[in-house]
Amino acid sequence: MKILMYLVVILLLASAAGAVYFRKVADDPGVWHVDPLTAEKPATPNAILVRPEGGDRTAPAYDVTPEALARAIDDLALAEPRTRRIAGSPDELWMTYVQRSALWGFPDYISIKALPKDDGATWAAFSRSRFGQSDLGVNAARLARWQEALRASLGP
Description:
Pfam families: DUF1499. The chain is α+β, with helices and mostly antiparallel strands and 156 residues long. The chain has a single domain, classed as TATA-Binding Protein (2-Layer Sandwich). Helix content is 37%, strand content 27%. A six-stranded mixed sheet has the order 2-1-6-5-4-3, with helices on one face. β3 and β4 form a beta hairpin. The longest helix is centred in the N-terminal third of the chain and has 23 residues. The protein is elongated and about 70 Å long.
């Protein structure tokens, strides 16, 4: 019975240590602020690329300037729970955000660039998990949700 109790205590301590580690791990912009137009997708299924062409999904065009699109993306991203910008700015048309999961605080990194396209703008994004093999579709769902929100606020 004592062995079982020790095992339970060890598991609880390991879980607590993991929760603290994942929430406090540093977000190094030098590592995570990458250009989504040139980023290479990892072999693991926990990442998605959205690009004007050549991504997992095609980014739509909007009838706004790249600057207006970058501001709309920044407002949208920062309105999400547990999300903060770690590099770039709308003025640079290139931003990287970290969004952490609710329970464990696992970090996902989202790099987005607003780009000129004809008389409007489009975007490229690379959303990926830092830890694990699978993200259960979280990164793809996030970018789909953001794309729909941009469509609703900026038009097709």
